[in-house]
């Protein structure tokens, strides 16, 4: 799908009345609707079990939308469209890194798409350099630190030039330095992006808007920082004020 050929005003991603129950009958999404604007960075927040990961799996084409609809640039998108257009970075980058060297891992998606290996490697190296991670290129991925793995996984997704980037908990289990590095990298991206997180301070640094999920439905949405200053709203939905506001 080529966004240039679609309506100019269409949103990169739109979710309409999405419901989902797992095969055991557990209802995880209960009519979720929201949209992502061009070049917007959106935080998806909510307590444990509110449906964030289930929603991300739908966005990345891992689960088919059976009730409700997902649209890419104004057009209904099936799982194949979503897999092609949306780059998902898992919470555990180990799931994404499996080649002997980081550079091969970063090039993997391009090679799978038919790009000749030498060209794919050059692109992978250029992307690692852009993320200030060229020194990781020849390291075995399983020996990297958590923060380095996140950067490698991010390079592997960005090199594919996805239309929309989706990240599941990009800063969980990172030390302060790695966390800062991931935040800087995400801030510098010029792509529509959705991330899930429990780290509201990170969301404030990276995102301009947030959607708050509770029990599989949108409990609130709005611009940042406004939404994350509303202590009562956050507490009602199982969240706490970001550290920077709770200190005052
Ligand atoms: N495979 C599954 N089968 C049945 N129920 C599931 C399955 N995966 C998740 N659920 C349930 O669906 C609901 C939403 O789960 P989901 O993982 O999407 O929440 P989340 O907001 O990502 O949570 P967390 O913040 O803990 O990662 C939860 O009640 C969860 O128990």
From TrEMBL:
InterPro entries: AAA+_ATPase, ABC_transporter-like_ATP-bd, ABC_transporter-like_CS, ABC_transpr_CbiO/EcfA_su, ECF_ABC_transporter_ATP-bd, P-loop_NTPase. One of its GO terms (molecular function) is ATP hydrolysis activity. SMART domains: AAA. It comes from the Bacteria. PROSITE patterns: ABC_TRANSPORTER_1 (PS00211), ABC_TRANSPORTER_2 (PS50893). Gene3D superfamilies: P-loop containing nucleotide triphosphate hydrolases. Keywords: ATP-binding, Cell membrane, Membrane, Nucleotide-binding, Translocase, Transport. Belongs to the ABC transporter superfamily. This is ABC transporter ATP-binding protein.
